[in-house]
């Protein structure tokens, strides 16, 4: 019965049109999932993490750094509160690279998987690659950012909002 309720909340989230509607639907979904957590890992499985709180600001980033770090047209990422994130195993295998002043991308030193980004100016939040989740997060991207930097060979074909930078909330 609980799974049906969660599925209905996911459907409400996916059908929501505006960012505000998606935010409200996302928070309702997380209230239903209070006793649930999300698990993730790197490609080789040596580094594992768990998230115990809501995912915020799910987006597709087309900046050149994300494209290069992920070897793809864009990076789908979410924000999570640092307090809601825990390393479950393999934390000693994490390597860091300061890709921008005050922004440190972490990756597995064994397989190279990009994991979380640490922000010196905003240490209570992490950015993480949604593709490293082992579980279905029940959320979808809300927007595209840095579309002016997108790969020239990639065409955005959905109707999500497009921004030159990350919009202020």
How would you sum up this structure, described in words?
By secondary structure, the chain is an alpha+beta fold. The chain has helices spanning 2-15, 19-32, 64-70; strands at 38-41, 48-51, 56-61, 75-81, 85-89, 94-100, 103-108, 114-119, 125-129, 143-145. The strands form two sheets. It has a seven-stranded mixed β-sheet.
Quick summary:
The protein has 3 helices and 10 strands; from the N terminus they run H-H-E-E-E-H-E-E-E-E-E-E-E. The protein has 169 residues and is α+β, with helices and mostly antiparallel strands. Mean pLDDT is 85; it is low at 1-13.
Write the layout of secondary structure elements.
Elements: H1 2-15, H2 19-32, E1 38-41, E2 48-51, E3 56-61, H3 64-70, E4 75-81, E5 85-89, E6 94-100, E7 103-108, E8 114-119, E9 125-129, E10 143-145
Parallel strand pairs: 3-10
Antiparallel strand pairs: 1-2, 2-5, 3-4, 4-9, 6-7, 7-8, 8-9
Helix pairs in contact: 1-2
Tally of contiguous helical segments: 3
Order of helices and strands: HHEEEHEEEEEEE
Please estimate the helix content: 10-25%
- Total domains: 2
CATH class of the largest domain: Mainly Beta
Structural class: alpha+beta
The major sheet is characterized as:
7 strands, mixed
Low-pLDDT runs of 5+ residues are 1-13
Look up the CATH topology of the largest domain: Metal Binding Protein, Guanine Nucleotide Exchange Factor, Chain A
């Amino acid at each position: 019965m609980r799974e049906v309720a969660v599925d209905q909340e996911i459907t409400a989230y996916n059908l929501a049109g505006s960012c505000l509607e998606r935010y409200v639907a996302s928070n309702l979904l997380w209230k239903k999932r209070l006793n649930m957590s999300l698990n993730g890992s790197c490609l080789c499985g040596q580094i594992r993490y768990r998230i115990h709180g809501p995912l915020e600001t799910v987006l597709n980033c087309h900046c050149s750094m994300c494209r290069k770090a992920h070897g793809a047209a864009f990076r789908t990422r979410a924000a999570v509160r640092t307090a809601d994130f825990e390393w479950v195993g393999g934390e000693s295998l994490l390597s860091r690279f300061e890709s921008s002043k005050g922004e440190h991308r972490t990756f597995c030193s064994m397989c190279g998987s990009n994991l979380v980004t640490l922000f010196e100016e905003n240490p209570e939040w992490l950015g993480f690659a949604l593709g490293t989740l082992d579980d279905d997060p029940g959320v979808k991207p809300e927007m595209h950012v840095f579309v002016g930097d997108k790969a020239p060979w990639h065409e955005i074909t959905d109707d999500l909002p497009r921004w030159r930078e990350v919009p202020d909330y």
